[in-house]
Description:
Elements: H1 11-25, E1 30-32, E2 39-43, H2 47-57, E3 66-68, H3 73-77, H4 87-94, E4 99-104, E5 121-125, H5 130-139, E6 143-144, H6 159-166, E7 186-189, E8 196-199, H7 205-209, E9 219-220, H8 222-226, E10 246-251, H9 256-267, E11 276-280, E12 292-296, H10 301-317, E13 322-326, H11 334-344, E14 347-350
Parallel strand pairs: 3-5, 4-7, 8-9, 10-13, 10-14, 11-12, 11-13
Antiparallel strand pairs: 1-2, 2-6, 3-6, 4-5, 7-8
Bound molecules: threonylcarbamoyladenylate and magnesium ion.
Magnesium ion binds next to loops.
Amino acid sequence: DKSNKMTITDKHTEQVLEGASKLLHDSQVVGFPTETVYGLGASSLSSNAVKRIYAAKNRPADNPLISHISSINMIKDIFHTEIPEIYKPLIAKYWPGPLSIVLPVSEGCPVSDVVTAGQDTFAVRFPVDKVARALIQYSNLPLAAPSANASTKPSPTKAEHVLYDLEGKIPLIIDGGQCQVGLESTVVDGTVDPPMLLRPGGLSLEDISKIGHGWEKIVLGKKTAGQYEKVRTPGMKYKHYSPTAKVVLFEGFNDVNDAINEYIKKSGDLLDDKKIAILTSRNWESNSFKHSLVIKLGKAGEEIQRNLFAALRDADKHHVSIIFVEGVGEEDEGLAIMNRLSKAASEIIDKNAIVV
Ligand code: TXA
Ligand code: MG
């Protein structure tokens, strides 16, 4: 359903939406579910409101925000912006959904320059989640919303994650259950030629390319590409998606014992009585390490995507000191999964890069 017509059937739901809408019109922020991750929303039209997002999350102010809409018409009716031709086949197929597009800020566009972080473009997403859409529709405001985690922490995929990070800092969290996609939207820029993938996410690069109409030429944005550099100095990168425990990401190891032994050899850390977590997906089956907590991410890309951030938070709850993660190939959902994992990791051990 691509219209903004939605009937609110239940009295309780209506009361929640009414309360949330009142807060939003008062320039306050609200935690709410989307199909990707929970968002921390405020009116995109109010700089005062959007500043509260940055304050609650402790987010650096130079990182722009995505505005969420509940109908395609809002782009014209509220932002006074024409959608560039190139986006039309893409949004016809993938909106509503986990896709954000970058648009030029045209004259008269009322988007706050706190949302754009002073750039001449702004990003828009039409989520599929019913609660998200009902909230936007009910308040009749486009909602600027980053992920509702404390800055640097893994993104929240359950309401309890938002509460854990932001309790006492925001007036309301709407609980809509677990997020179906589990990692953030894909961000594309079609205002440049060739179009660019700025952030891999819930919609795969393959699904975008196959649309044609210019999208087959899509290239990885510089920042996106840079994340795949295999050689990295811990601490040099911008911290993101990081649990308290140290994350070690393995690539190309079919056997978990081989992988962990390689870590021991490399680091000189014998692990001894350390409590560790092992996040397994496609190949790692069992292991003989003591004190280990095994968390299964699932085998299909969709499952891994859905479970990843919650697994990192679970490992922290159990106070492990190291999280060992089985990496996946970078096809389909794998590109976004490895993007998030490589940012969360302080160390990456690639079997194919080991010189014997
Ligand atoms: O799935 C999502 O996109 C979630 C949910 C809540 O919708 N939101 C989210 O927002 O992940 P955030 O703020 O964590 O990430 C926004 C991303 C950043 O990588 C930012 O740099 C990029 O979108 N972005 C926003 N506006 C942009 C612009 N004008 N040009 C380029 N990139 C932009
Ligand atoms: Mg985020």
